[in-house]
Q: What sequence folds into this?
């Protein structure tokens, strides 16, 4: 089970990186969404995937069963999902506004903050 | 929380703290709680724009008092820990405050107060209605939470808190320039925090704990078996990106000059320094053995960051963009101390961080005042401020001297300490790079002062057309406070150098930190 998940995580990361290398903001945005999911799956997998044993520590000398899935990564992911979801929502609106205001989603043409052909700094006093 | 039928039999003292928290220890969470409370209240009252500035200045003053009390508490009683929900660490999330965290928190609160006062005049009504002050408080919650927390996943959460509030501050106004800058800032910072999260996921996989003190106890035995070097390299990449270290710094010059000036000032003072702080915690305190291996990489990154930052500053025509490059150059100087990792080097880094927070914020504020008088940020237009506004020109000159590292201002001592630390271990090229950076920065700063403040206007006609008046309380007071601090650090550095040295030794020998979280050995 873990092996397949690890391969899936790898695929997710490569897709995300590929999308991030695009010039178009909308693809970068999709890349960000997939990257978030890749990380969440990665953390999920690192806590072992099993349904056989419930994550309850018995009293007495038996202690923690080795085959138990660690519940803490799942709690971490819950936090990370909320954060990456809110980020995605913000970025989606930002991207839409960018497209409305700047009339482009090509990062090469987004030169409003750093315009091309700036004048030279003063060379004499 | 145990259910009623088991609480009778279970011994809670094994898992929970039974003693009530001491009154003084509540100070640990007071700054964060204060920020979130004020942020929430001001968010609800955001339509009442007349009330925002006044209430914020009161709130930020309370914040300075709380942070000052926390710093005093830590200086008197040593490292303090408070664990949330009374679960014993490493299960409860701990806030652990040592001198490094407490002093940076205090300086951050002073900067926030200065910016809040400055914002009373600088932020217009629409800026207030769209939540400048609530965002400021929530960002402060994120910044202070990062400085105080002793749990690495919690650090990630605070990073996100400060990041999302900084987005709000950055796009306040929605001009095309700002949206462009914010897009680049948002995506690149998202990648940085995602890297941080990946590293933290692996860290939990390796250690099974997220508590920094617990990680420190386990790291020495894990060095042989676990891929700690990879982990450290990932953290270095993630925090280097947040701190704007050289190959991954392009988001900073793309965005820092776009928002209104008071926002730029807060960002320049706080955000990159949180990255440096996180680097200090992870590279120096958690994984010192792995940092040793990475030392040369950190050193090269440091040298390239400081030199390219200074060169970038020399090439600018826009005053604000020039300051952005000076922020980057300062980050390089701080990284130099992390690369050396000696007691002297680290105390230099910590002192430089404090100096840079104060001086960069003040420089952006005077830049805003200058632009109000000159009508723009271009260095090509002489503004003749030396004749029309002498106090502003004088304050700016002091700040420019401080940022260049000239005595008797605050930039001199940390740079001197760092040069000495580099020569102590025979890294002459590091010392040379710091001195070269100082020289280049002096040229860049001198050019700003000559071109904008000193040079007379070409045509005499429009100089007497209703000069811009600066208000003493909202314009001069915040800049004055920060400049006074810069002068104080420069003229009387002894106690601050001592404090930085103690903070650095606490990082290198974190026994007090571990003891504070796990008194008497703790549970194993």
A:
């Amino acid at each position: 089970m873990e092996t397949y998940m690890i391969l899936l995580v790898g695929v997710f990361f490569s897709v995300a990186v590929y999308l991030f290398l695009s010039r178009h903001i909308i693809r970068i945005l999709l890349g960000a969404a997939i990257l978030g999911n890749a990380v969440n799956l990665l953390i999920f997998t690192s806590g072992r995937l099993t349904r056989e044993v419930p994550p309850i520590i018995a009293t007495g000398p038996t202690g923690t069963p080795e085959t138990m899935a660690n519940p803490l990564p799942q709690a971490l992911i819950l936090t990370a999902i909320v954060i990456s979801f809110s980020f995605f929502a913000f970025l989606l609106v930002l991207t839409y506004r960018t497209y409305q205001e700047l009339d482009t989603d090509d990062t090469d043409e987004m030169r409003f903050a750093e315009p091309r052909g700036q004048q030279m700094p003063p060379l004499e006093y | 929380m145990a259910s009623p039928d088991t609480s009778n039999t279970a011994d809670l003292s094994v898992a929970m703290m039974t003693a009530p928290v001491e009154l003084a220890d509540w100070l640990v969470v007071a700054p964060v709680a204060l920020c979130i409370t004020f942020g929430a209240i001001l968010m609800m009252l955001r339509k009442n724009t007349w009330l925002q500035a006044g209430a914020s200045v009161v709130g930020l003053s309370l914040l300075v008092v709380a942070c000052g009390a926390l710093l005093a508490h830590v200086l008197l009683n040593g490292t303090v820990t408070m664990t949330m929900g009374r679960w014993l660490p490493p299960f409860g999330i701990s806030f652990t405050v040592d001198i490094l965290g407490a002093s940076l928190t205090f300086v951050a609160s002073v900067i926030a107060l200065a910016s809040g006062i400055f914002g009373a005049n600088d932020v217009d009504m629409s800026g207030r209605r769209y939540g400048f002050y609530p965002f400021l408080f929530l960002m402060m919650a994120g910044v202070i939470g990062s400085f105080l927390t002793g749990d690495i996943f919690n650090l990630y959460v605070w990073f996100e808190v400060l990041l999302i509030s900084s987005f709000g501050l950055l796009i306040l106004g929605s001009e095309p320039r700002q949206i462009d800058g914010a897009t680049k800032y948002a995506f690149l910072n998202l990648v940085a925090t995602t890297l941080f999260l990946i590293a933290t996921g692996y860290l939990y996989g390796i250690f099974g704990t997220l508590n920094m003190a617990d990680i420190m106890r386990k790291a020495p035995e894990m060095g042989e078996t676990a891929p700690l070097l990879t982990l450290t390299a990932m953290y270095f990449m993630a925090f280097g990106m947040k701190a704007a270290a050289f190959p991954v710094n392009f988001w900073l010059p793309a965005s820092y000059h776009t928002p209104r000036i008071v926002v730029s000032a807060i960002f320049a003072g706080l955000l990159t320094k949180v990255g440096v702080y996180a680097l200090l915690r992870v590279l120096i305190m958690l994984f010192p053995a792995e940092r040793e291996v990475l030392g040369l990489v950190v050193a090269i990154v440091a040298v390239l960051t400081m030199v390219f930052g200074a060169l970038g500053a020399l090439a600018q025509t826009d005053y604000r963009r020039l300051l952005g490059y000076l922020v980057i150059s300062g980050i390089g100087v701080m990284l130099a101390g992390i690369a050396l990792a000696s007691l002297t080097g680290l105390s230099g880094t910590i002192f430089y961080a404090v100096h840079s927070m104060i001086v960069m914020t003040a420089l952006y504020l005077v830049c805003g005042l200058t632009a109000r008088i000159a009508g723009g940020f271009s260095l090509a237009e002489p503004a003749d401020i030396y004749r029309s506004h002498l106090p502003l020109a004088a304050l700016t000159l002091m700040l420019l001297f401080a940022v260049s590292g000239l005595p008797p201002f605050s930039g001199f001592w940390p740079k001197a300490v760092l040069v000495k630390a580099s020569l102590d271990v025979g890294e002459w090229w590091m010392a040379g790079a710091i001195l070269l950076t100082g020289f280049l920065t002096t040229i860049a700063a001198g050019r700003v002062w000559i071109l904008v403040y000193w040079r007379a206007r070409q045509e005499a006609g429009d100089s007497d057309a209703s000069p811009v008046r600066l208000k003493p309380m909202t314009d001069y007071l915040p800049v004055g406070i920060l400049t006074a601090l810069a002068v104080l650090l420069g003229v009387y550095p002894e106690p601050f150098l001592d404090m930085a040295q103690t903070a650095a030794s606490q990082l290198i020998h974190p026994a007090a930190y571990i003891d504070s979280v796990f008194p008497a050995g703790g549970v194993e």
